[in-house]
Amino acid sequence: MILCADIQPTITAAIIGAAVAFTGIIFNIFNARILRINSNRQEIYKKMNGFYGPMKILLNECQQLFEAFAYEHKEVDFTTLHFLLEGKHDQLSKTDHELLKSIIQLGIKMENIIETNSSLIDNQLLFEMLVDLAVHYKTVRMAYFRQIEPTEKNKDIFKDKAFPEIISHAIQMYFDLYKADLSYYNTIFFKKRPKKEYKQIFEDYKVKINSSLVKHKTIKHTEKEKYIANLLKDTPYYHILKTG
């Protein structure tokens, strides 16, 4: 009985020690996960607030101003750049001039965002499209201020510098995907990553992107699926879409 009495405190101490150690391990694992989640959350906020959010707003503003400008010019497939490259400045009303100046200012803001925050872009194809967007606004600015002469040669040289419509859909798609990520990371008790939600976002924008591909560049029908999928390459979403 004396032996048992001597052993019992030792066993109790061992159990308590093991429990404390186990609790410490669980705490460290949980703490490491919280740190990783906070890091991921901050990275998403950085991308949304530093790039995708401002670009989304500015593109929407530009689109509304363009619609107001194009309303008076009832041409099929009307584009601001082609209108200016044809030297039709004398057809511009006072309102037209103000609308174009506003569009040009918004374009300058987007150029600055692209140039200063390009490190926030993960996807190479999206990066290339943003270069096209920056070149488009620079070309519109030069054409408006008559720094590009309205000659047939220049019309041919700059004919592919029209607004890449696909970029608006791509930016919006990324914004919505990151928004879904934030919803996931902000959940206190984690559920599974919302793969179905990501897939639905992608499928919704795939329809819009498909309709814009022809306007952006000539792509064979058989290459469209690859082109759209590549918009997410080098991001976590590409793996999710490939694996389901």
Would you write up a description of this structure?
The structure is a single chain. The chain is mainly α. It contains 9 helices and no strands. Helix 1 (2-70) runs antiparallel to helix 3 (94-116) and helix 6 (166-185) packs antiparallel against helix 7 (195-216). The protein has helices spanning 2-70, 80-85, 94-116, 124-144, 152-157, 166-185, 195-216, 224-229, 236-243. It is elongated, with a radius of gyration of 27 Å.
Brief description of this entry?
This protein is an all-alpha fold.
Question: How do the helices and strands line up, and which of them pair or pack?
Answer:
Layout: H1 2-70, H2 80-85, H3 94-116, H4 124-144, H5 152-157, H6 166-185, H7 195-216, H8 224-229, H9 236-243
Helix pairs in contact: 1-3, 1-6, 3-4, 4-6, 6-7
Q: Give the amount of beta strand, in percent.
A: under 5%
Strand count, sense and barrel status of the largest sheet are: none
Distance between the termini: 63 Å
Order of helices and strands: HHHHHHHHH
Give the number of DSSP strands.
0
Radius of gyration: 27 Å
Keywords:
244 residues, mainly alpha, 9 helices, elongated
